[in-house]
């Protein structure tokens, strides 16, 4: 059984989908802990499923590296086989990435390498493209630049706003995440090591 830790910053909609999938006895992975860098609404999903949580508030640390050391210490308590970033809106320090990669994955609301960064949906709309997408990647020390594990195109419709487009991307993101976690747990997907930057 693959042990999964999930890190969040917000509502945790991807987390919720993963918890629902993992509640199926036939699913080969279990979420063992949920952590966050701030008091996140997504903790409610963890509590609903009886999953332990931990909080490492970014603002309480002098540097990103100090925050990363505490985050790393909290993760190590749970010995996860895989760490999933589920809307964690903060770049991890290199020490944390190096400790977990390639067993560290993230979702992104664009068809990478198109539109990396924090505003993938907005950037796609601004570029006037006919389609964007969703991706699941291995995290490396770049910005959304790690090896791609799964992705799917999502059309941009006339009149789309950032909100409407993102709402159509989210279900695709959730499904891809669940498929990737299942495939890793079942041994059907080998995680490629990120190339050093």
TrEMBL record:
Task: Locate the residues binding (6R)-10-formyltetrahydrofolate.
Answer: 64, 89-92, 106
What's its job? Answer: Catalyzes the transfer of a formyl group from 10-formyltetrahydrofolate to 5-phospho-ribosyl-glycinamide (GAR), producing 5-phospho-ribosyl-N-formylglycinamide (FGAR) and tetrahydrofolate.
| Name of the protein described by the UniProt record | Phosphoribosylglycinamide formyltransferase
According to UniProt, residues marked as the site described as Raises pKa of active site His are 144
Which residues are involved in binding N(1)-(5-phospho-beta-D-ribosyl)glycinamide?
12-14
What species is given as this protein's source?
A: Microbacterium aurum
Q: For this UniProt record, give its keywords in alphabetical order, as a comma-separated list.
A: Purine biosynthesis, Transferase
Q: Which gene encodes it?
A: purN
Which Pfam family is one of those matched by this entry?
A: Formyl_trans_N
Q: Which GO terms describe its cellular component?
A: cytosol
Q: Where is the signal peptide?
A: none
> Part of which pathway?
Purine metabolism; IMP biosynthesis via de novo pathway; N(2)-formyl-N(1)-(5-phospho-D-ribosyl)glycinamide from N(1)-(5-phospho-D-ribosyl)glycinamide (10-formyl THF route): step 1/1
The enzyme's first-digit EC class, named in words, is transferase
| Reactions performed catalytically | N(1)-(5-phospho-beta-D-ribosyl)glycinamide + (6R)-10-formyltetrahydrofolate = N(2)-formyl-N(1)-(5-phospho-beta-D-ribosyl)glycinamide + (6S)-5,6,7,8-tetrahydrofolate + H(+)
Q: Does the keyword Transferase apply?
A: yes
Instruction: State the similarity comment.
Output: Belongs to the GART family.
